[in-house]
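Task: complex structure prediction.
Instruction: return structure tokens for all chains below.
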Amino acid sequence: MPKILAIEDDPTTGREIVAELEQRGFSVEWANDGRTGLDRAVSGEFDAVILDRMLPGPDGLAIVTAMRGADIDIPVLMVSALSDVDERIRGLRAGGDDYMTKPFASEEMAARLEVLLRRRGAPGRDAARDMSLTVADLELDLISRLAHRAGAEIRLMPTEFKLLEYMMRNSGQILTRTMIFEAIWGYHFDPGTNLIDVHLGRLRRKIDRPGLPPLIHTIRGSGYALHAAG
Amino acid sequence: MKARELWRTTPFRLTLMNGAVFALAVLALMGLIYQQTAGYLGRQMDGIVVSEARALALGGAERLPERVNQAVAADARHIEYYGLFSADGVWITGNVRALPPGLPIDGAPRGITAAKLQPGSRALAERLPWGEILFVGHDALVLSGLRDIVVRALAISGGLALVLGLAAAAALSLRPLRRIDQLREASRAALKGELGVRLPVSRRRDEIDMLAGVANAMMDESERLLWEVKSVGENVAHDLRTPLNRLRALLYRVHQETRLQGAERQMIDQALAETDEMLARFRALQRIGEIERRDRQAFFEPVRLQSVLEHVIELHEPVAEDLGVTLAPEIAADAPKVSADPTLLFEAVSNLVDNALKFTPRGGRVTVRLATRAEGPRIEVADNGPGVPEGEREAVLQRFYRAQRARTQPGSGLGLSIVTAIARLHHFTLSLDDAQPGLVVALDCWPRGIQA
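Output:
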């Protein structure tokens, strides 16, 4: 059971973080000022940190900088009311692994945290060295950029390939539309309407052929997940 | 700066008026001096003729003609006139051959006019005790010399004063005129809607500075009001987002934790979707504020528009296909790079394409065009949908405005406002036009000049 440290001075946001993460089976400790937060963050007891950017005492940037300085390498998800691009850049540059703007939907926060944990959770596995990815009977060849499902070859457009690779690398995780848009296209604005749904629909038509158990699942109100049926 | 403008300036007019008053004063002074001097000289001449006559008369009758002749001979300047006449007025001697007619013979000096004499000359005729008549006259040569001097002085000083006055007036006006020009330039920029423009204030604290100061205070105030109005929407969005988000969290928790079935499940799903829609609008509002406040230069770099457009098309292509709309690129390969924020440009064009796709009927066509104009590259997104009537085009760029054609469509009505904000940040020009049929939205990717 991963242990999460939430450093957040706003009581409402803090409670929401704790409630959402506990419901998902995490054990959560909540620090509500920068001083305690920093002490706990460098203790080495946690698997990830959710860190508010603006805090009394040392602020979020100072804490993440101090953590990285002390070789604490756990994932840090920064949350902030400051939504400007340069704030995001500053947060990531200081050592944050992801950046969310307040207020946020709690499942978005949880989804992002899970992706971060998963990424760090596989030490020794060099993602860049992977030749192929496999989920159930779906295989994606990262060299030839071809997918195979139940023995049939699936040709992918460049965007579809990127999308499938991202989903397979994070298989079993809920991926929100925002996360997908940021990861595949690299932009941080609201793409609007059903843009991501349409891209997913396209990919789904290729992967989940009629008669096969579906691998791409729609999570109502949240996003998508790729995993074996069941 | 034109001559007419120079003439209209207050310093110019004041200086000229000042010069005229000064000239009048000098004229009056000179006139007074001349008049006083002429009176004095007249009295002096009277004294001269009286004492000359007395000196001649005192010598007695016997050698008078001889002495008159001596006096005539002694006058090297030829300004004295003498005449000795018998009791009945017949000339005896002297350089005056006849008594001037109308001159009373009473020994009192008077003004006399004669062809040979300067104006203002004085003379007297006196009957001597022995009956003869003596005439003594004095030509007013000194007086006329003085008059000439005064007139010449007046002419020279007048001319000089005119030239100097004009020069001084022009010189004094140039500086205020130049400052007025600066003020005009600054006000023109302010009128064009540029914020942060202030009128230059010099350190002299003169009347122009006072006015500029007042104008600047007014501009401060209107800018503050403008920001206040602008931020109202944003603040409302910000204030409502948090409770709305909590509402969404509650709905989501209900959605997650209870085992709802059928209609109830659907209602919760719908409530979640509606809340998400509201949150999206608030995010869009905040996004506009964010773009408007952004430091323009911070993320600027040379951007290859071709790749921006290609990426936008790639992003929207599946949606177009789903809608049965052809998404057609027409991209000029030679369009030059522009200095811009690439992510914002992507967002702008993406919004335009999203908009165009929404309003194009199945089987229609959306063209994404990159054209090269003399001034720079131009991005056009054209659809062959219903278009926007000319009267509405300006309005659809306004925040929240939804054209007639948009009323039935989902969306915040903020997409074009985001594009407008991005265009403004870049000083690019966004315009709507008739695509015959349909709408074409053009983004001119070169900085709009102050004249445009």
